[in-house]
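Onboarding guide, step 5: your first structure request.
Type a short instruction followed by the sequence, for example:

Predict the 3D structure of this protein.
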Amino acid sequence: MGDPGELRISDRDRELAAKRLHDAVGEGRITLVELEERLSAVYAARTANELRPPLADLPGGLPPTVPGGPGADPGAVPQAPVHLRTGAGSLNRGGDWTVPAALRLSSGIGSIHLDLSEVRRLPPRIDVAVSTGMGEIVLVLPAGGTADVNDVRASWGEVKTGVPGLPGGSGPHLTVHGKVGLGSLTVRPARRSWWKALLG
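The system replies with structure tokens like these:
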């Protein structure tokens, strides 16, 4: 296998790197002049190796989504996101199904409903890119699941979450980003049926 550092990076990787640089200014680690220089290098970067220099002297280094970043398996080949899409129909997943570490969800005027509450083996971190027209996306998390939806842009649509936004619970943590047009995105915990609540 070739050098993982020569693999192409995504716009998401560049945005995470740029956020780290802005944070570094607020922490007093770099100046505004350095920020401008480093941002130019970040947005011009095409590979992980090219993204490394602007972040090399900062705590944390590369974003975790980049090959060689903190927490990344140096021998692993990044998996392409699984793309689930619907036009005017509905797409539902429930029970015990295979959940990838990266998902792309696209809905025109239909609905996507993904229930993770009964999945036996979930990735600890799941990257979810969403895109809706007038459609609806619903993500149901198991107990202890968390989700950061701060990077979801809503035009005329609605973004609702009923779970904590910071990782640290006993369940998976979702990083959700993308755009909601006239539709909606809902992230909520699983609803316990009355008999499960009775049995504890």
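Each response can be followed by summary notes, for example: The two ends are 50 Å apart (CA to CA).
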